[in-house]
Specification:
By secondary structure, this protein is of the alpha/beta class. Helices cover about 25% and strands about 25% of the residues.
Amino acid sequence: MQVDFYQLSRDPAEAVVPLLARNTLKAGERLLVVSADDDLTGRISERLWAGAESFLAHGLSGGAHDARQPILLADQPQPANGARYVILADGVWHEAALGFARAFLLFDGSTIEAARATWRALDGREGVERRYWRQEENGKWVQAA
């Protein structure tokens, strides 16, 4: 499984999630977006509906049609939609993320120490590949580790 660490320095999580979501759907996968912060979840939902290219259909967990959602927003990493990819949008690592094929941990200055601790904790874990991404001034994401 692959864990991608995205350091948010220029754009906030609600701007990065639609990019990752679009790429996930293009890969033919379903996505679970996890955040315990209701305000952040609301901002992410708004950005998914108001995408520049087109909206990204999604739902909030706990609804009648969770299993049908290509993108599901939840406060816990429980893929009611059968997602194999998960975005931890609020910067909080969940060990349950290791049960997915791919996990994206988005972190900023307020969660950087926890992200570093997670990076170290996953070092050498069998079957886990880590990647670190940072954003350049022009907005492009580059793999730095």
